[in-house]
Structures are given as C-alpha cells and as structure tokens.
Amino acid sequence: MNLTPRQLRIFVLLAETLSFQKTAEALHVTQPTLSKLLKETEEMLGVPLFERTTRMVRLSREGQSILDSARKITAQHEAGLLELQQRLRERHNRIAVAALPTLAASLLPLLIQRLAEKRTPIRVEVFDPIACEALDLLRERRADIAVTTRREDGTGDLVYEELFTEPFALFHSAKIRPEVNRWLPAQLARLPLITMPVGTSVRTLTDKAFQAASQPFQPVYALRDLNTIARFVQHDCGIALLPASSLDNATQRGVRKTALKGALTRSIGMYVRKECRSSRLVRVAMDELQRLGRSRPE
Fold first, then answer.
1. What pLDDT score does 238 carry?
2. What are phi and psi of 114, to 5 degrees?
3. Which Pfam families match (predicted)?
4. Residue 200: predicted pLDDT
C-alpha cells in the first residue's frame, strides 16, 4: 500500500464535510478531479470509503473503521511539515510574527527597523489576523510569536509576557471636538461610533465593557481595516472608539485623538508556545519587543 498524505487528507476532509462541493473548494480542485482521486484511493485500499447517491454522501463501514487512523496520520504529517518550516526559518534567519492589525500597523514596523540594524539581520514574516487566529497560527507553528491582547482562558499551552497596557480613545476629524472626555458608556453610546467587527479583540473588550455598564453597544459602522476607519473619520462619517495606538496622527491627516479619563485599557503582550524553547532569533525579537514596550510614551 502506497497511500500519499494528499489522498488521506482528501478522505479525512470529505468524511468531515460529507460534501464533494465543499471538499473540492477547500482543496482548490474540481469535483470531477476529487471524484477521480477518491476512486484511486478506494481502488488502492480495495474497499469503498463512502456510500454515495445523487442526494447524499456518507461514510461506509470500512471508511468509519479507518477514519481515526487517517486523522492521526494526516495530523502528524502536517505537524512535521510545519516543524520543518520552522527549522528552515531559523536556518535562514527568519522569524514569523502574528500580530493584531492595530499592532501590526503601529509596532511591527519599529521591530523590523530595529532588527534590520543587527549585525545578523533577521527577516520578519508578518501575519495580521484577528486575536484567535493569531494564537492558531502560533499553535500550528506558522508563527513563532503572537503579539496580541491577553486572554483569560484557553491558553494553558502558551506563555504570555506583557509588553504594555494602553487605553481606548476617541478618534475624530479635526473639524469637531467630542463632548465626551471620560469613559462613560451611556454618554459614549450617544456618539456615532465606529469600531471593529465582532470576533476582533477590540470589539470583544468594548462589548464586555458596555455590557458591564448595562449599556447597549450599537456602533454605526464595524470596520476591520484601519485605513478604511481613518477615511470614515476624516470625512465625518463617525467617531472611532479604538485603542490609543490604532491611528497615527502623523500619518492620518485630519484625524485627531481625544483621551478619555478612566478609559478601558487592554493588555498587550507576546505569546509563545510553552512546549518548546525559543530559538536565539526568536529571543532576540522578543527582547526588542520588550524594549519597544518599555519605551512607549505613557
């Protein structure tokens, strides 16, 4: 028997979706190609893996009996490939950092600049996903460091080092001055607020803070891209309620920031995997991130 990892992955994915269309889309192949590959696998094994009609797809008894083994093999293969990618990054002086979009925009350019000044330059691969995706990239070994907000649960396999805390602030056009200058959800709710979408750490923190004050949070816009938010603010389409580092007054012309007394804050730090010792390159990058965190203005 000479099954390839790709054949096993196709079997596992189809067993999970029970849909040729969804599986073909996930694998970026046509449905006829998927059917052909599955047929070759079944012929090699000598048993049918699925029972198929024009209306439904389900695992055969033989398919059910080997599914767990196929999952373990594909998981081990993918883990091995990801570990190999990590080793290659180290060999070629590369690291991968996953950071929230607001941090990727404000913190990582400074990190890259400082690392470029080292005698052994370190190349940085950057991901800018939402918070949960950043930790997924870390666990999957696609990233060496995740720079994100602190999470209270579900991170027992990771180690967290805080870099800094920062308050939320209002970002608005230079033409207006918000009447609110304190963190009072009831007053903030009267503003045409712009925030980030559900699922982002910024939105999660904001929702919880407003809920704690028994105040519904109903922004007029929920936008993920910071440049888009800046454009909306510049054209008086709303007032953004975001962490203080989200928009840069120096680069976003016409945008002003108003600090809020007693504002909600977020903890920003680095996550690394607990089960492995960080390489020298990763440690250098972490040290630089710590310096950047300490040098931030209060």
1. 96
2. -70, -40
3. HTH_1, LysR_substrate
4. 85
Give the pLDDT of residue 171: 95
For the record, the structure tokens of 217 come out as: 């949070």
> Which pLDDT value is given to residue 237?
95
Decide: 124 and 111 in contact? Cβ < 8 Å.
Answer: yes
Please, how many CA atoms are within 13 Å of residue 31, restricted to the half-sphere of its CB? 4
Q: What residue ranges do the domains of the chain occupy?
A: 5-90, 94-295
Q: What is the pLDDT of residue 249?
A: 60
Q: Which residues of the chain register pLDDT less than 50?
A: none
Reference 124, options 265, 7, 281, 275; nearest CA is 281
Please report which residue ranges of the chain form alpha helices under DSSP H: 5-17, 20-27, 31-45, 61-91, 101-106, 108-116, 131-139, 185-188, 201-212, 226-234, 280-294
CATH level 3 topology of 94-295: D-Maltodextrin-Binding Protein; domain 2 (3.40.190)
CATH of domain 5-90: 1.10.10.10
Q: Residue 208 has what pLDDT? A: 95
Contact criterion met (CB below 8 Å) for 229 and 242: yes
Can you tell me the distance from the alpha carbon of 72 to that of 74, in angstroms, rounded to the nearest whole number?
A: 6
Instruction: Find the length of the chain.
Output: 298
Q: What is the pLDDT of residue 120?
A: 66
Shortest CA distance to 74 belongs to which of 10, 152, 135?
A: 10
Which of 252, 273, 286 lies closest to 163, judged by CA? 286
